[in-house]
Amino acid sequence: MLVNGYIQRAELKTAVGDTTLTHDDEHDRAIEAASRQIDLWCGPPPGRQFWQDATATPRLFRARDRTLVCPGDFDATAGLIVETDDDADGIFETTWDASEWQAEPFNRWSGFPYASITTTTRSREFPLDSRRPRVRVTTKWGWAGPPTPVKQACLMVAVLYFRSKDMAGVGVGIDFSTTTISADPISMAMKLCQPLAIEGGLLFGIKQVPTHG
Questions:
Q1: What are the CA-CA distances from residue 199 to residues 66, 108, 111, 196 (Å)?
Q2: How far apart are CA 146 and CA 111, in angstroms?
Q3: Per-residue pLDDT tens for 36-52?
Q4: Taking a C-beta distance cutoff of 8 angstroms, is the pair 197, 41 a contact?
């Protein structure tokens, strides 16, 4: 069963001209492999998450400063819970009122998620000065759904991964030692994903160059 793939099986089957049910398992594996590769291109392990969790889960963080914590991608503020460990004893005893924090950026572009939480009042600040993570955020993590560049990149990579089952003896690889990207299917997919990469992702900071001339 396909889990958190960025395209549907039918899309890959259409792309490779497969109208049978014979290779459905291979299609699913190719899509999942491509999707998880894109995650790692775009974020630190386990990667950026271009799907949304089905249920809310807590994660622990250190605040950047007394007014800012950057928990990563989340799409909605409904049901989001912010808690703090105010005395560094490992117990999150304070649950913030929704009026004491706000999600940012305020104006989200083209389906991009929220990525940070800031305070709204001087009477409530995030605790610092400890080795412990003292902020706990509970929400449904991830993007509401993959943006168009991720879908297109996933299709391109999944086609190659699926067809690789018939490429015995043929080497297909990616060299991350270079800082340039050329015009082959993998590199074109990397170009699509590169603007979405954040620090820690394999594509973060890679220089893109023209592929003609």
A1: 22, 20, 20, 10
A2: 9
A3: 999 999 999 999 999 99
A4: yes
